[in-house]
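Help needed: design a sequence for this.
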């Protein structure tokens, strides 16, 4: 690899770790997305969405981008905007992690925090209502709209999925977390075409409405929604596993004591794999994607005061395998 000359070239699609500590009978292969410049998988979606807007002539240097984000996409768009000369307004809510907020501010982003809950008890609808109102009145704003943007899916169809497909001979189970479902939709469509025998297991948080059900309280950003993302209709999965945030925290804490500081969604996905373990044949090839590391969650998931406040006492499930 040539030495990069632009921060946006620091996107790594080929870093994995194989753990034998998650399941007793299987190695779990984890694709690590946290090494890229923005610290998360969202740099790939952000780049694809902005590139496409530029290619179609819809935006140019100096324009203002606006997007609803609970953190990682906002940070990725902040970096892209700083590199390419856009103004960026991130519309978010009180669940925004303080590190994500500080990062975005450091890159020059304007942050708008919506505090009014929507009819589902979350903030997503309120955030989107705010953006729709602004873009309808002021044509100088361009809305990225990750929940409906096909390029959010395409980013993973054309990079994340082929990179996983190339790495393993045969994958029996591929676990993918669902937020906007950009990753799930892109990866699942690619695998259903190229490797139809691979079982795709979607992992969602308890309290998310993405695949139906009632909205419930969720505090960890990344996975789950309070409004069905339109691009979720593109996802093709064999099963869904739901994980309670208590289990997410539990797993994150157990793994940090083994030297791996994962973000919340990775904890949720790995906990989902543990929940699903009785369905997994011994020695089957299990693969998953870790969207980010845990550095941004030091004040929440990895802070006992916070976890004790919101989740009572964290119970221990017992040792990992
Ligand atoms: C940490 C983290 N995990 C998972 C996801 C979900 O990815 P997707 O939006 O592609 O479903 C996100 C999305 O923002 C995220 O930030």
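Sure. Designed sequence:
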């Amino acid at each position: 690899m040539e030495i990069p000359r632009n921060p946006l070239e620091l996107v790594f699609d080929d870093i994995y770790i194989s753990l034998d500590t998650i399941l007793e009978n299987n190695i779990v292969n984890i694709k690590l997305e946290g090494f890229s410049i923005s610290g998360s998988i969202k740099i790939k979606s952000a780049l694809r969405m902005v590139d496409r807007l530029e290619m179609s002539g819809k935006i140019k240097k100096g324009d203002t981008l606006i997007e609803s984000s609970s953190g990682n996409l906002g940070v990725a768009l902040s970096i892209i905007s700083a590199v390419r000369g856009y103004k960026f307004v991130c519309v978010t809510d009180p669940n925004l992690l303080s590190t994500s907020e500080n990062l975005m501010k450091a890159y020059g982003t304007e942050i708008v925090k919506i505090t009014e809950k929507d009819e589902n008890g979350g903030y997503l609808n309120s955030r989107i209502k705010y953006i729709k109102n602004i873009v309808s009145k002021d044509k100088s704003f361009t809305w990225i709209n990750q929940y409906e943007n096909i390029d959010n899916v395409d980013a993973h169809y054309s990079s994340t999925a082929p990179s996983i497909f190339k790495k393993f001979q045969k994958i029996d189970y591929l676990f993918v977390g669902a937020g906007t479902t950009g990753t799930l939709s892109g990866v699942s469509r690619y695998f259903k075409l190229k490797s139809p025998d691979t079982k795709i297991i979607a992992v969602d948080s308890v309290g998310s409405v993405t695949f139906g059900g009632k909205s419930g309280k969720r505090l960890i950003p990344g996975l789950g929604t309070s409004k069905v993302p339109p691009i979720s209709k593109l996802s093709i999965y064999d099963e869904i596993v739901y994980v309670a945030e208590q289990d997410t925290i539990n797993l994150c804490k157990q793994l940090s004591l083994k030297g791996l500081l994962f973000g919340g969604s990775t904890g949720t996905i790995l906990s989902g794999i543990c929940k699903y373990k009785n369905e997994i044949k011994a020695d089957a090839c299990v693969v998953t994607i870790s969207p980010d590391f845990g550095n941004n969650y030091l004040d929440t998931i990895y802070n006992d005061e916070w976890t004790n406040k919101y989740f009572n006492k964290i119970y221990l499930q017992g040792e990992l395998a």
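Residues 40, 42, 71-73, 177-184, 222-223, 263, 265, 291-292 surround pyridoxal-5'-phosphate (CB under 6 Å).
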